[in-house]
Amino acid sequence: MNRRFVIFLDTSLWISALMALVYHERFLMFVDYDAMRVRSHIDQAFYFLTGLGHESFAVFFVINGIFVGLFLRHMPTAQGDRALLARWWRSHLALVPVLALGGLLDLAGVHFFNGSGLYSDFPAFSTVTLSWSAFYSNLFMLQPALAPTFGSNGMLYLYAYLWWSCCLLLVLRRAWRSHAPWPLAGGAAMLLGLVIWMPPTFWPWLTVWLLGVAVGLRGPWPRPLLHPLAAWGLLAAAILFSRLAGARTDLLPAPWGQLLMLWKYVIVGLGFAAVASVLYRSPMVPAARGAAPSFFARLNRHLADSASVAFLFHFPLMMLLTAIGADLFGHRLMQQPGPLCYALVGAIVMACYAASHALVRCIGARVGGLRPMV
Questions:
Q1: Averaged pLDDT for residues 250-279
Q2: Nearest to 174 by CA among 85, 89, 91, 90
Q3: Is the peptide bond preceding residue 220 cis, with omega within 30 degrees of 0?
Q4: Which of 59, 53, 79, 69 is nearest to 269 (CA)?
Q5: Cα-Cα-Cα-Cα dihedral of 85, 90, 95, 98, to 10°?
Q6: Considering the entire predicted model, what is its pTM?
Q7: 3-state secondary structure (DSSP) of residue 188
Q8: Fewer Cβ neighbours under 10 Å: the N or C end of the chain?
Q9: CA 357 to CA 302: how far, in whole Å?
Q10: How far apart are alpha carbons 207 and 228 in whole angstroms?
């Protein structure tokens, strides 16, 4: 692949993960934007950028789909589906320590550091459901349709969406190629089952993920499908629209306003997929074999390797660190922004990302099948 394309994916991956972490920590430590007493330019920029948490999820889904598409493209057709499913299943086993460690952190917070009421009085942040039924339901990807997410880790519903998206893609690909009645019936049955079972939010995220799969499967293109400036402009416009629209369902008459809010992240995914397709081109000059990657490339790769675990693991640790700060050091929740608050947000986010990197090194797996190719 074009080295520029790989660097772009790595950088986008860890930046989107970092943005999601800052987005969540801001909700724990800062007041809402409307409740700010003084709004400096720094505060306004911070609130605007950290409001892009769900947009970063869309970027994450597109990149995941791109890697899946690359895997299927570079594997023999007869073996690609089984190999991808096997790789997803092996990486899925790494979810066990993630679930267990997150549950232990939540138990510690509930029993020892709940003086601020973070685990009991703020259901808007996360509903802490610590039970064996929730644990096993999340292990078998039954959240959020049949079970709540385990503990405070609300991000696990996105992992379930990725898992079922991959299963649906593989079943439908097999049915399409075989044209035999049983595979076709199996594909139709799984699609119908997901239609009945999954909540409406699943389908926009499936669409975002499939945009990435299409980029990985169909590229590289000898010529860009769009002019680079047009692709970047589309992404910027999509992000700006999504951010300014917020949760306003009154932009269009009912029920179109609700549908727009449900599907607006597909627009962000489309913009990012357009930029990725522009950058995914065959290299004009092959990279020198055996050339050592630069320090930036190695750092970029390490940060990207930790991104998927950071998405899946950060919230229980973030809740615990915030609760410790409130109980032991008197740092109240939902404060007005200030230098100390900014410093604490940065420290907690860095601690969560560092812990995710350490967890990746310990479990020896890249959770979620995010990197099946590179």
A1: 90
A2: 85
A3: yes
A4: 59
A5: -150
A6: 0.90
A7: helix
A8: C
A9: 8
A10: 23
